[in-house]
Structure formats: C-alpha cells, structure tokens
Design goal:
This protein has five domains: 234 residues, Rossmann fold; 167 residues, Dimethylsulfoxide Reductase, domain 2, CATH 3.40.228.10; 115 residues, Barwin-like endoglucanases (Beta Barrel); 115 residues, no CATH class; 47 residues, BFD-like [2Fe-2S]-binding domain (Arc Repressor Mutant, subunit A), CATH 1.10.10.1100. The radius of gyration is 27 Å and the shape is globular. By secondary structure, the chain is an alpha/beta fold. It is 29% helix and 18% strand. Helix 8 packs across helix 10. The two termini are 51 Å apart. The structure holds ligand MGD (2 copies), iron/sulfur cluster (SF4) and molybdenum atom. The site of iron/sulfur cluster has 14 residues, from helix 1 and helix 7.
C-alpha cells in the first residue's frame, strides 16, 4: 500500500461483522470503508453486505441506555437488578434455574467471559449459543470423527481443488467472497468442476457443472452410496470403523440415476476434492450423520489434510468458530477441554479458582427454552441473538420467555422482538465500537478494532458480564482491564489439555502483551509456540456409521408440502442492521413463499398465501419459481415483528432436533399452502415508519431519502381502509389529491403541501399494483406539477425507463437495463452498465437473467 500523505491518520484494520468468511475491512477516519487488501480471507474484496457496512453505522433505534421494567435506569441500578434476578433464581431453583443464551456475533473475549460466568461461577451447564441452530451438527460430526471440533482445511483448498462439492450451501449468497474466490479459480483453471447439492436451484448453481436436486434430507443416503462406490472402486483405509460405515442402511437420494452416476464417477476420479457443507447439512434431524457421511468419504479416499482436499464445514456467523473455541455450547467446556477427561475438569477448576464448576453439559437451546416455558428458569440472559425470531416453534419460544421472571437482553438495538420482551435491557457496543477477536471458518483469528466513539451509555459485553459477576461476589475472577487480558487467559486455558494437547492450542499467544494484542495480524491456529502459525490439519480419524433416517416429521395428506427456509443475498438474519439500508432492501423487498408453478394450483401468483403447519402459520406473498423443487417451498428466515409480523416463518417451523447434536431441523417442516383472502391490497409511502399493525398484513421497508414503504393488505372494506390510512398520515396544512372509484376498486391518493409530496397511498382489490420503486424519488422534489401529479396517480413515471427490479445494488442496475444493454455475458453487461463490477455478489443473477433471455430469431 502506498501512503499519499504520511501525516494523515491511518485506517483502522478490522473484520466484517457478518458472515464466517471473516473478511478484513479498512475503516478510514472519514468513515469510508473498503476491503483490506492484506487480509488473507478476502485480499480486498467485499460482498454487497460488507460494502454497505458504512450505511449501517448510524443505526436508528440503537439501545443507548440501560432499562429496567420499561424505564431508563442507571448502569448501577440495571446491573444490580440483573444480579438480584439471578440471585433469586439461584435461591429458588439452584444452578439449573439460571441460564445464558449467547451468540456467534459476540467477540471471543465477550464469549469467554459469558461462558466463564455460567459454567465456572453460576455452576451451570445452562449456557447455549445460537450456534446450536447453526454449527452444532458440524461440531458433533468433527468430534465423532476427529475426537475434537476441528476444520482440517483452509480457503486456499477451494482454489487448489479440481472438484468442489457444495452440500446444502448457497455460497454465492451466504459466503459471497469465498464464492468469488472459487469462481476466479475456476475461470483460471477451466478443468475445475463445481457440483451443487441442494433440493432447489439457487444462485450458486449458476456456473456449476452439475446440480443435484437431492430429495430434502437425503444427503446421508447420497454419501453412504458414495462410500460404497468408493469402496467398490478399490479405495481402502486403515482408520477404524469402516465396516460398520459400509453396512449402514444407504437410503434413497431421489436423484436421476444418470446424474448420480456422474457425481459418483467425478468424485472417485478426482484426488483433489473439497466437500464444503453448510445449513442444508447441519439444520437437519440427521445433521451430525450428514457431516460424518461426508467425512467418511474423505477418509476412505484419503482426501483430507492435503492441498485441495478435505471436508469443509463453513461457519455462518462472524464468530461461530470463536464460540466453539471458548466452549459456549451447552455440551462443551472452555478451550476444547472435555468433561469426559477428569484431569481437564480438575485443571480448569483450579485455573479459574471455580470450586462450583458445572459438573456436566446443560440442555441445548430448544430444550432450554422448553424448560423456560415450563417455569423452570428464573433468570435468562440473552446476549446478541434474537430467539423470538430465530428459534423454531417461535410462538412457544415467545411464551416461554414471557414466563421468565428475570429476562435480560444485551443488544445494540431496541428494535428487536427479543429486546421488546425483556425486563432488563442492557446497551451493548456494536461493530466499529467493540474491541476483540473473531475466528473465521478457516481457523484464522482476526482483530475487530474500534474506530467509532461509544454511543450513549453502551458498554462492551465482557464488561457487562464482569460487572454482574462482581455483584454476585466473584469480582476477582472477572477483574480484567480490557480484552487483551481476557484473550491471554483464553489462550492459557488451551494449555490445560491433558493428557494430550488439542489441535486447538493457543499457548503461543498466552504471553501477548497489550501492544502485541493491539497490533495482532490475522493468525491461524494452532499456535503452540510464539512465532508459529497453523496450516492444514491432518487429524487421526475414525469412520462413523450413518444409517439413513428420514426427516423427523413426514409429510401427510393434511400437510403435503415440505417447508425449506434460509437466507437472502442482501439480508442478515433478523434484519436489525441490513433491514435499515434501502439499497439492501431493494433486492427482495417483501417476504415471499417460493413454490414450483405446478404446485400452485388454486393459488394466485403475487397474492398472499397462508403457510400452515402443525405448529403455526405465516402469511407471505406467493412467488412462483421453476428452480424450486416440486413438493417443497422456500421461505426466507429474515422477517420479524418489526418488519412483517405475519411473515415470521419460524412460527410454522417444527422444533424437532438432531438426537446427536441437538440442532433443530429448520429445513424441513410438513406444511400446506392455502390462499389468504384479502379484501384489498395496497401500499403507503410516508416520511416516517408506521406500526405494521395498521393493516391485517404489512411488510415495511425503508426507501431512499428516509421514506418508508408499507406494503399492506386487509380484510376490512377498502373504502374504509382508504379513509383510515389517510387519516394516519394527515398533516396540518397538507391536502389530499384523490383518485377514487370504489365501484372498480380504485383508491389512490397523494398528500401534498406547497407542491411537496408527503405521502402516497394506493389501494386496489388485486395484489397487482402499479410499480412504486420510483415514487420515493418524488418526495425530494420541491414542486410536483400538474403533469407529475397525474403520472403519480396513474402510477406511471412521466419520463425515464419503466421500473424494473434492482439486481446490482452497488450501481443500482435493474433487470431491464441488464437485458436491454446488448451484452451477451456477465463481463459485457458489466462493461455496458456497471452491473456486477462493484462487489460482484450479483454476478450469478446476471448470468441467470442472460440464460433466460430469449434467443433472437
Ligand atoms: N446473505 C446472508 N449471508 C449469510 C447469512 C445471512 O443471514 N444472510 N447468515 C450467515 C449464517 S449465520 C449462516 S449459518 C450461513 C448459512 O449459509 P447457507 O447454509 O449457505 O444458507 P441457507 O440459505 O440457510 O441454506 C443453504 C441451502 O440449504 C438448502 N437445503 C435445504 N434442505 C436441504 C437438504 O436436505 N439437503 C441439501 N443438500 N440442501 C438443503 C437450501 O435450499 C439452501 O439453499 O450464512 C451466513 N451468511
Ligand atoms: N427457519 C430458520 N431459522 C433459522 C435459520 C434458518 O436457516 N431457518 N438459521 C439459524 C442460524 S444458522 C442462525 S446463526 C440464527 C441467527 O439468528 P439470531 O442470532 O437470532 O439473529 P440476529 O438477527 O443476527 O440477532 C443478533 C442480535 O444481536 C445483536 N448484536 C449484534 N452484535 C452484537 C454485540 O456485539 N453485542 C450484543 N450484545 N448484541 C449484538 C443484533 O442487534 C441482533 O439483535 O438463526 C437461526 N434460525
Ligand atoms: S463475504 Fe461479505 S458478509 Fe461475509 S465477511 Fe466478507 S464482506 Fe462480510
Ligand atoms: Mo448461522
């Protein structure tokens, strides 16, 4: 890097707070952000979410002060209230009656502190992490195969491989920079092959050499079949357990035999093969078996721990790996130490000076919230996660939280469904403010460094934990002066492993002084000695038999479809950050249920449908997609009470869990889809955000210029709804221009004051309404003339191109512009329109658009 002006303050090196790729970010003092060219994960790249980070910094709705029972409180009062709540629960129920529910969005130091408080001092195994919903099956698979939770490979293996198999991973949307690295490698080595195993055709399938639309939940069958195939082709291994693995019931994959045969051959023929897996694998009642079935195939073919070869579980959250390192899952101890090794338990007890160290694992997340629902938890502290939205059977979870006498939430935002339920709300520092480390999918530890002032009274999570611990009488064990001290202690814990050291060894970092910690460059573990760094791992391993089991709940005549859930390209989980950025909302503005056209008989495309299961229901807009597998539907996980209360998919998702890992089966719930009849559909654009309760169905999204778009539908009479909604946004001195013909169901109005547009409301009987992407632009104009008013109410822009969905959010390029630019491939489209030349996250969609373009006669 060249520095143009040496006196200018240098940018701060930090790490993206979204996915587990763990991209380095350079934050300049003027607030501009860019990818860190020196970070090994991304070498300067960022995806659409990373690129938009700067727009999430001044997040409205920040929680800025502690609150107790709805009232602002001092830190002292709030911390006293937490301690008192926990003391009471301990007195009433013992250590089983207190619990922490934490998250992969905490820094390692915060995570370590929370786990030490729970397991070491509250003396309870009742601490679990949202990683239970995310990584628990991979963790269980690793521990069964390798005796330890370790990911053998590194990102470079994806570039060195000749065959990359993605199982249950929408890498293009969920780990975009890793996908870009893969695509770049593939472009430079055309012999490299990419296989995608996913019941639905995703953006990741664009450019893949083979897509295997596997039957939902059938991955174990596929990899059991592959194991036998490899054995028949002469592959042998001396690792224990092979015979049992080979004779385990194989099961049916639901795949076309020719496609299956191609895959089996490719795999058998290609020594440099990486199998990367994610939530289509983990979030299953056979999740741990899926992981082991994959690992078995790599063991038998000897493809592990070598360049370009290995099973590769990618982490979801920025610090999912760090949480596993500190042992914050209910069934783990700190530092990869093991409850099954008494010498380690003794060593940790002595090191922490924690005589009441928990004696064994606690309940996993779903069980923990069930215990809360049964009144067995007196105090529950939720940190950096939104279980009211993200846990399955979420209505039961909400009811459970409401039963907890002392419900505490530490969060950055006030606008979370979980924070709304909490009695005690503690403001935490967020990204750009907090200081510590995270570990990515390839075991690289990176610093997250602060570059912003602490807002309001927000404090670091570790500090909050330490303050509560002190009030409970354990000040000495939590007397850190900053994250460096916690990191040193965490590193020292890893040296307690006995009789044998673990791969997870940070002994070489236990002596870092504060300055070295401050300047720490990204480093991969194991780090057994100072100055060393880890690489690929080739662990001793065993085969695990994985007899095929179908998903926990079978479909039946009453619930004939399978509900699959997951992510969108530009949203992050419960949308507390990404939901506030207009250009991130532009890509997929409303909550949808995607169904194959042939499964949609009797349903109106674009209309609202109710998706019902035995657990609950959600109402969403129906989207027909040919890439959707017959018999199943896909719904994004992101919408919440804040954005679209009726569209929370986890209200309908079943709470079945994997018997080995405890991970919920979030990708498979039997459901039926029925019309959700509405008397009217409409939208309201206003200069403020209105409560979603203004209509029976609502989906809110921010638009440019501070305008809020409210997509609405109702069962009341349209004319009445029209009047009611108008009165909600009426302003003094403003007047309505109305176009109404109730007989044909036309209700349109614009609120104006001195030629300025203040609100626009459109209602009709049918879900199809005029395009509205262009309307927010009118709000900024100072004089809306007669012509503009006419075109406004006509719902057609007077000039400019007709509206079309945004594909490239970096350059604001629509599908119509891409199709109309004359470019025949992604590069040509990029040259003509700029689309795909920013972060590159939209390239797979551009390719898909071009592929569907009719060939000129
Ligand atoms: N844009 C974006 N990126 C993210 C996140 C986000 O919220 N938004 N979250 C991050 C987090 S925490 C995580 S865990 C990761 C998740 O990353 P991914 O796991 O890639 O994402 P998902 O969309 O949850 O699920 C992946 C795919 O599994 C498929 N699937 C469903 N059932 C099956 C099955 O039985 N077998 C197979 N083989 N596939 C199946 C689904 O159709 C889906 O396409 O993403 C991370 N990155
Ligand atoms: N149906 C279905 N459900 C799913 C999934 C699915 O695929 N389908 N995926 C599951 C998976 S893999 C995951 S990881 C979960 C994610 O689900 P959640 O963890 O519930 O989702 P988030 O919206 O990321 O919630 C994080 C919260 O932490 C806050 N926060 C961020 N940083 C900090 C911090 O430093 N300190 C504190 N105290 N707070 C902070 C944010 O403001 C936000 O409110 O969802 C799971 N649920
Ligand atoms: S891929 Fe995107 S979301 Fe993930 S860490 Fe990199 S910039 Fe952040
Ligand atoms: Mo996750």
């Amino acid at each position: 890097m060249t520095e143009t002006c040496s006196s200018e303050p240098r940018p701060v090196r930090t790490t993206c707070p979204y996915c587990g790729v763990g991209c380095g970010v350079l934050a300049a003092p003027d607030g501009t952000l860019r990818g860190d060219p020196e970070h090994p994960a991304n070498r300067g790249r960022l995806c659409s979410k990373g690129t938009a980070l700067g727009e999430t910094l001044d997040q409205p709705g920040r929680l800025l002060h502690p609150e107790v029972a709805g009232q602002r409180a001092s830190w002292d009062a709030a911390l006293d209230a937490v301690a008192e709540g926990f003391r009471r629960a301990l007195a009433q129920h013992g250590p089983q009656g207190v619990a922490l529910y934490v998250s992969g969005q905490l820094l390692t130091e915060d995570y370590y502190a929370a786990n030490k408080l729970a397991k070491g001092f509250l003396g309870t195994g009742n601490i679990d992490s949202n990683s239970r919903l995310c990584m628990a099956s991979a963790v269980a698979g690793h521990r069964r195969a390798f005796g330890e939770d370790l990911v053998p490979g590194v990102y470079e293996d994806l570039e060195l491989a000749d065959l990359v198999v993605l199982v249950g991973s929408n890498l293009a949307w969920c780990h975009p920079v890793l996908f870009q690295r893969l695509q770049a490698a593939k472009a430079s080595r055309p012999g490299m092959r990419l296989v995608v195993i996913d019941p639905r055709r995703t953006a990741t399938c664009e450019g893949a050499d083979l897509h295997l639309p596997i039957a939902p939940g059938a991955d174990v069958a596929l990899f059991n079949t592959l194991l036998r195939h490899l054995h028949a082709r002469g592959f042998r291994s001396t690792a224990p357990g092979l015979d049992a693995a080979l004779t385990a019931a194989a099961g049916e994959t639901g795949l076309d035999p020719a496609l299956l045969a191609t895959f089996l051959d490719w795999f058998a023929q290609t020594p440099r093969t990486v199998t990367l897996f994610s939530q289509g694998t983990n979030q299953s009642s056979a999740g741990a078996d899926k992981a082991n079935a994959i690992i078995n195939c790599h063991l038998l073919s000897g493809r592990i721990g070598r360049p370009g070869a290995g099973p590769f579980s990618v982490t979801g959250q920025p610090n999912a790996m760090g949480g596993r390192e500190v042992g914050a899952l209910a069934n783990m101890l700190a530092g990869h130490l093991d409850w099954d090794r008494p010498a380690e338990v003794t060593a940790l007890r002595a090191f922490w000076r924690a005589p009441s160290l928990a004696t064994g694992p606690g309940p996993t997340a779903v069980e923990l919230f069930r215990a809360a629902g049964e009144g067995r938890i007196g105090a529950l502290w939720v940190m950096a996660t939104n279980p009211a939205v993200s846990l399955p059977d979420s209505e039961a979870v909400r009811a459970a939280m409401a039963r907890v006498p002392c419900l505490v939430a530490s969060d950055c935002t006030r606008d979370s469904d979980t924070v709304a339920l909490a009695r005690i709300r503690l403001p935490a520092l967020g990204w750009g403010e907090k200081d510590g480390t995270v570990t990515n999918s390839e075991r690289v530890i990176s610093r997250q460094r602060p570059f912003r002032r602490w807002p309001g009274e927000a404090r670091p999570d570790w500090w909050i934990v330490a303050q509560v611990a002190a009030r409970l009488g354990w000040a000495e064990a939590f007397a850190w002066d900053g994250p460096a001290a916690i990191f040193r202690e965490h590193a020292a814990v890893t040296a307690l492993a006995r009789p044998a050291p673990r791969a997870f060894d940070l002994s070489g970092l236990a002596g870092l002084d504060d300055a070295a910690y401050a300047g720490m460059a990204p480093i991969r573990w194991p780090v057994p000695r100072q100055g060393e760094a880890g690489g690929r791992l080739a662990p001793a391993a065993r085969f695990v038999p994985t007899p095929f089991r179908p998903p926990a709940h079978a479909t039946d005549a009453a619930f004939p479809l399978r509900l699959n859930t997951g992510r969108l390209r530009d949203q992050w989980h419960s949308m507390t950050r990404t939901g506030l950025v207009p250009r991130l909302m532009a890509h997929h503005p409303e909550p949808t249920a995607s169904l194959h056209p042939e499964d949609a008989a009797g349903l109106q495309p674009g209309g609202l449908v109710r998706v019902e299961s035995r657990w609950g229901s959600a109402v969403l807009r129906l989207k027909l997609e040919a890439g959707q597998a017959r018999g199943s539907l896909f719904i994004p996980m992101h919408w919440t009470d804040r954005f679209a209360p009726a569209a929370r998919v986890n209200a309908a998702v079943n709470p079945a869990v994997d018997p080995v890992s405890g991970q919920p089966e979030l990708k498979h719930t039997p459901v039926r889809v029925v019309p959700a009849p509405m008397a009217w559909h409409g939208f309201l654009l206003a200069r403020r955000r209105l409560a979603p309760e203004i209509a029976d169905w609502a989906a809110l999204l921010p638009a440019e210029g501070g305008i809020w778009r409210h997509e609405l539908a109702g069962t009341d009479r349209p004319a009445e709804a029209f009047a009611r909604l108008r009165s909600l946004v009426a302003e003094p001195g403003a007047a309505w221009v109305v176009l109404e013909d109730a007989a044909i169901g036309l209700h349109r109005a614009a609120l104006l004051r001195e030629g300025r547009l203040l609100a626009a409301l459109f209602l009709g009987r049918e879900p199809e309404l005029p395009p509205r992407d262009w309307l927010p632009g009118l709000f900024g104009q100072t004089a809306i003339g007669l012509e503009a008013r006419r075109s406004l109410l006509a719902g057609v822009p007077a000039d400019g191109p007709p509206p079309s969905p945004t594909i490239c959010v970096c350059h604001g390029v629509s599908a119509a512009s891409i199709l109309g630019c004359g470019g025949g491939d992604v590069a040509a489209v990029g040259a003509a329109t700029g689309a795909g030349t920013g972060c590159g996250s939209c390239k797979p969609e551009i390719a898909a658009l071009l592929a569907r373009m009719p060939v000129p006669a």
